[in-house]
Design goal:
Length: 285
């Protein structure tokens, strides 16, 4: 079967599984060929399909996420290795990086960017490594409760050439830390137990990175009180939230002496609560 026919057949097969069946088919074909998707699209479609392509489509048809099948996921300006056991980075999380960039580039920021960055619940290292790629003078610390996540994050740092500027450590959010950081990032679990999730998520991604009690707020209740002593006098905090959690998480910020500002993702949904030590920056509420 030609590449063209195999892609068409896979697209039809995945239409009931994915909202983007053609994209999925192209990503899987590119992976099977050892090419980028761009190279696949620019090449001939008359060549024979690789023998391993059908097996990849079978895995996707069983709802396995594309990122776990290919082993990679692009986030911000970097490409990360991902595997079962770590949450797959989402574009919505880039809202945290955008907010931090805006703060440190603003008149109320220091104009230089952060020199120290803390990422609590680092997972694949997505937020921390993306931030370090933006500020080449910064150093970072990533904390996670999972040894597997720390292995994957460390491997991503090595591949990106960031190892000299980053440390990873096993930990329970910010417990036991005594350093202060210019930027604190966190994407904690925030889904309520019993929530209806797609098979791609619930059957494959780690529950510990998804669920946080009956109302989805358990991680925030433990995490947010730890943040003020860890923040430098001119620093910023950016914490991801679920789209309906802005009021509850803002209240937790206020009760711990922080000034919350809600930031929205590209879809206009509430996506992050930020605190800027030197004042509010940008649009939000």
């Amino acid at each position: 079967m030609s590449l063209r026919d195999a892609l068409n057949e896979a697209t039809q097969r995945l239409a009931s599984v994915s909202d983007t069946p053609r994209l999925d088919a192209e990503l899987l074909m590119a992976h099977a060929l050892g090419l980028s998707r761009e190279a696949l699209l620019l090449g001939s479609r008359d060549a024979p399909a690789p023998a391993g392509f059908d097996a990849l489509v079978d895995r996707r048809a069983a709802h396995e996420p594309i990122a776990y099948i290919t082993g990679t996921r692009d986030f911000w300006t970097i490409s990360l290795a991902v595997a079962p056991g770590v949450l797959i980075p989402r574009p919505d999380s880039e809202t945290l990086i955008e907010a931090a960039l805006e703060y440190f580039a603003s008149p109320t920021g220091n104009g230089r960017g952060p020199s120290s960055i803390l990422d609590l619940g680092t997972g694949s290292g997505a937020l921390l490594l993306a931030a370090l790629s933006e500020w080449p003078e910064a150093h970072g610390l990533g904390i996670d409760a999972s040894d597997l996540a720390l292995e994957i994050a460390s491997a991503n740092a090595r591949r990106l050439g960031l190892t000299p500027r980053v440390r990873f450590a096993l930990g329970d959010w910010g417990a036991g830390l005594s350093e202060r950081f210019d930027l604190i990032l966190c994407n904690p679990p925030y889904i309520e137990l019993g929530a209806s999730l797609s098979a791609d998520v619930i059957d494959y991604e780690p529950e510990s990175a998804l669920f946080a009690g009956s109302d989805g707020l358990d991680a925030y209740r433990r995490l947010i009180p730890q943040l003020p002593p860890l923040l430098s006098p001119e620093g910023a905090i950016a914490v991801e939230i679920g789209a309906t959690q802005a009021a509850a998480v803002s209240d937790l910020f206020v009760s711990n002496g922080l000034t919350p500002l809600v930031r929205h993702d590209l879809g206009g949904r509430d996506r992050a609560i930020v605190h800027f030590s030197l004042g509010l920056v940008g649009k939000g509420r």
